[in-house]
Write a structure and sequence with these properties.
The complex is a heterodimer of chains A (about 290) and B (about 475).
Chain A lengths: L1 H15 L8 E11 L10 E4 L9 E3 L4 E10 L2 E2 L4 E7 L6 E5 L1 E2 L4 E7 L5 H5 L4 E8 L7 E10 L35 H24 L7 H7 L1 H23 L3 H31 L4
Parallel strand pairs in A: 3-11
Antiparallel strand pairs in A: 1-2, 1-4, 4-5, 4-9, 6-7, 6-10, 8-9, 10-11
Helix pairs in contact in A: 4-5, 5-6
Chain B lengths: L1 H14 L9 E5 L10 H9 L3 E5 L9 E2 L2 E2 L3 E4 L13 H9 L3 E5 L8 H9 L2 E2 L7 E3 L15 E5 L17 E5 L5 E2 L6 E6 L5 E3 L19 E7 L5 E5 L13 E4 L2 E4 L2 H12 L5 E11 L3 H6 L11 E3 L3 E12 L2 E4 L9 E6 L1 E7 L1 E6 L2 E9 L5 E9 L7 E10 L16 H23 L12
Parallel strand pairs in B: 1-2, 1-5, 5-6, 6-15, 19-27
Antiparallel strand pairs in B: 3-4, 7-11, 8-13, 9-10, 12-14, 14-15, 16-17, 18-20, 20-21, 20-25, 22-23, 22-26, 24-25, 26-27
Classes of the chains: A alpha+beta (about 290), B alpha+beta (about 475).
Chain lengths: ~290, ~475
């Protein structure tokens, strides 16, 4: 690798210096012309190319234009026909490379024509200008020539759709996916909840106050307990116990713990209730209620 | 009896120094026995690496890639033959069947020999294209050996290949220059992800047929880096095929030959390159092995510290939605003769997919620890809020590495009825809870009132 790196500049140098090269390939009388569609032959800009230094300005090729590059290949000073005469385009971003072959006759005169339809889509969609090099080489001992001659600026008509094939499958790490969770259910602001909760709870004292103002009392408690103490205690107790069972069901019990307890308490409530309510009825019949 | 046999087998295995992960039976198909000498260093290198080599002519009557319907060999090297037909034992279908049974193949081509039709159609099947006419050769007027090919420029001197992508491991790196004499260039189809270039021609190279009368190349087969000198294919079952454009590259002559590149004297490093090429093709390198796969409900640090049973059940069959899950997998890479910890390149990652039809999560696994011969990769994530049948899936396919495709199916269930937050934890429910308590107290008070309240004097007793 190190070796390669060291010889490449020397190679370029040697190929660039035509003066010293008695037997190195190069070219002469090179012109590049871009011809717009419909324009007459010879119309359009024509630039001379130098084998030693690339053209300072971009060669722009519109989608309807044709580029014509003409040159005479020389071996040393003498015009000659090489085996290989390529115009090589390289996309600097993707590294895609395509070579176009000069039609060269025996006297070394050659030309290549290029239009958008000849170019791979990578070149047409590239954001950077595409460097174009001329490669001339042949069998034998003459030094081959390779150097950048100009930069392509491919102006693509945005209105003309370009058929870019779908990117083929390549095995590589794919984009990460993180599941987007649904939002958690939200509660209204606590202050509003509290206002309404207080309103609901306040209904209870309000009810009691209304009852008291209407004359609610517990004056018959002693009489009731005196007449049927066991059934009254059991009945009222079982109603409280039932609420307790509901509370336990709410907090920790399951249905199978709740149902037997509720049945037992319900039975007690039924038996004691009939006695206690009979006592209430007796009081009513006695005209106490 | 059986234990004795297995003991013997173990002893035999131990006797061999290094072994391919895929087996050691190697078939070299060589037409001319006299040519064997030309490849003797390669064959010796292979047998010193533990391969049991059988050299057969394609014309040998008993030659077959299969015996009793199974592979008779693990690997095949097909060297160029004079005849265009290889006979009924080596048809394109036979080669493809051989690869379907995970056999590995090296096909060496040469521009001096016509490529056998069975090889041509096999390569065509795999989307590897070679020039159809005999004699097409890759030349480069820039990087040729001026000692042996001063005029013809058909012995290329190329540096070792670089990684084809920044995220792909390079199994063919090395120091020095590879001599590629009289190569048949290949072009690769763009569609298949299974074929990869190993050694590309330099950008100034091209492939032409010397028999063409024209003085200048007019219609080359391919030019520049689109030409491959060596290309490789790895099938879905990880069977490997390497196409070596130049069979001479494998010969003793070029293994350590003095050459001249642009006036500089160099020594070719073909032996090193061929060693790398054969060990990759014959699965001595680039083989991945998955070890233990583990997933469990991650109950968090606090819970782990408090309980004596630190880790919950391994690889449970069922998870709940929105549950923290830890996943670990052990992956090793086979390196010539042992398993070593595997690390993907910096731009690459092994990924875990948690998927039901399509992935809900695709996460990069990070190496969390390392054993003597494996790396443990891990990741933690939360199961999605969607119940169903999910898969933990690792589908790791990369160029030059054998494929890993592992799936573990689990059920993800919904919240059970007692796993929801209690009603008092939800502030919006306080109004309703208040209402219930008010009703309870009001009811008990009403019962007491109804049972024990005496009529007030003020109230007018209605007479019935």
């Amino acid at each position: 690798m190190r070796l390669l790196r060291s010889f490449v500049p020397s190679l370029l140098l040697s190929s660039a210096a035509i003066v010293s090269a008695a037997s190195s390939w190069s070219f002469e009388d090179a012109t590049v012309a871009v011809q717009a569609k419909g324009a007459g032959v010879g119309a359009g800009a024509k630039d001379k190319l130098s084998p030693t230094s690339p053209l300072s300005k971009y060669v722009s090729l519109g989608s309807a234009d044709t580029l014509k590059l003409q040159l005479t290949t020389v071996d040393g000073k003498k015009a000659a026909r090489p085996h290989q005469a390529f115009l090589t385009l390289t996309d600097p971003t993707t590294g895609v490379e395509e070579s176009f072959i000069f039609n060269i006759n025996d006297s070394g005169k050659g030309s290549v024509n290029l239009a958008h339809k000849d170019l791979p889509h990578q070149f047409l969609t590239s954001a950077k200008p595409i460097p174009a090099s001329i490669v001339i080489g042949s069998f034998g001992s003459s030094t081959p020539y390779k150097s950048k001659v100009f930069d392509f600026d491919l102006a693509r008509d945005p209105n003309v759709p370009l058929a870019v094939p779908e990117k083929p499958l390549r095995y590589a790490a794919e984009k990460e996916i993180h599941h987007i969770f649904r939002d958690d259910p939200r509660s209204p602001p606590k202050i509003i909840t509290l206002v309404f909760a207080v309103a609901v709870v306040a209904a209870l004292p309000a009810l009691f106050i209304v009852w008291v103002t209407l004359g609610a009392n517990a004056s018959h408690l002693g009489k009731a307990l005196g007449n049927a103490p066991v059934s009254h205690i059991l009945f009222f107790g079982s109603i409280m116990a039932m609420e307790g069972i509901f509370f336990l069901y709410y907090t920790s019990w399951n249905l199978f713990q709740t149902l037997p307890a509720a049945l037992a308490v319900g039975f007690v409530a039924y038996i004691s209730g009939s006695r206690a309510l009979s006592e209430v009825q007796e009081r009513r019949l006695a005209g106490l209620r | 009896m059986r234990w004795l046999f297995s003991f013997l087998a173990f002893a035999l295995l131990g006797a061999v120094q290094a072994l391919s992960y895929a087996g050691s039976r190697l078939l070299v198909i060589l037409e001319d026995k006299a040519e064997r000498e030309k490849y003797s260093v390669l064959l010796e290198d292979l047998s010193s690496r533990g391969f049991h080599t059988t050299v057969e002519s394609p014309k040998a009557g008993k030659l077959s890639l299969f015996r009793h319907g199974e592979r008779a060999y693990d690997h095949v090297i097909l060297l160029p033959t004079k005849s265009k037909g290889l006979g009924p034992a080596l048809t394109a279908n036979q080669f493809l069947d051989f690869m379907k049974k995970e056999g590995n193949v090296i096909v060496a081509l040469s521009s001096d020999h016509a490529t056998p039709t069975s090889v041509q159609s096999m390569l065509l099947e795999l989307d590897v294209h070679i020039p159809s006419a005999k004699g097409d050769v890759v030349v480069d007027h820039f990087n040729y050996d001026s000692k042996s090919a001063a005029d013809k420029h058909d012995v290329l001197l190329l540096p070792f290949p670089k990684a084809i992508r920044p995220d792909v491991k390079n199994y063919f790196a090395g120091e020095g220059l590879i001599a590629v004499p009289r190569a048949v260039g290949q072009t690769l189809g763009n569609e298949s992800p299974l074929i990869e270039p190993v050694l590309r021609a330099p950008s100034t190279a091209y492939s032409y047929n010397p028999k063409d009368e024209a003085d200048a190349v007019e219609d080359p087969f391919a030019t520049g880096e689109q030409l491959n000198i060596v290309s490789a294919m790895q099938a879905h079952n990880s069977a490997r095929l390497t196409v070596v454009g130049s069979a001479e590259l494998l010969q003793n002559k070029w293994f350590s030959e003095k050459a001249t590149l642009n006036g500089q004297a160099v020594k070719t490093a073909n032996r090193d390159f061929v060693q790398k090429l054969t060990s990759w093709t014959f699965k001595e390198t680039g083989v991945l092995k998955m070890g233990k796969l583990l997933h469990y409900h991650d109950e968090g640090v606090s819970k782990k510290l408090n309980t004596s049973l630190a880790i919950s059940e391994h690889n449970p069959k069922i998870y709940r939605i929105k549950e923290d899950v830890a996943f670990q997998v052990e992956i090793s890479e086979y390196e010539n003769d042992h398993l070593a910890p595997f690390f993907p390149t910096d731009n690459d990652a092994i990924q875990l997919e948690f998927s039901m039809l399509s992935p809900f999560h695709r996460l990069n696994l990070t190496p969390i620890s390392q054993t003597a011969n494996s790396t443990i990769f891990g990741v933690s994530f939360r199961t999605p809020d969607q119940h169903g049948i999910f898969n933990f899936r690792i589908d790791y396919r990369r160029p030059f590495l054998t494929n890993i495709d592992e799936k573990r199916q689990v059920t993800v269930r919904h919240f059970a009825h007692d796993e929801w937050p209690r009603s008092w934890q939800i502030s919006g429910a306080w109004v309703w809870i208040g209402g219930i308590w008010v009703t309870v107290i009001g009811w008990v008070a009403f019962v007491a009132l109804w049972l024990y309240s005496a009529p007030t004097e003020k109230s007018v007793k209605k007479t019935q």
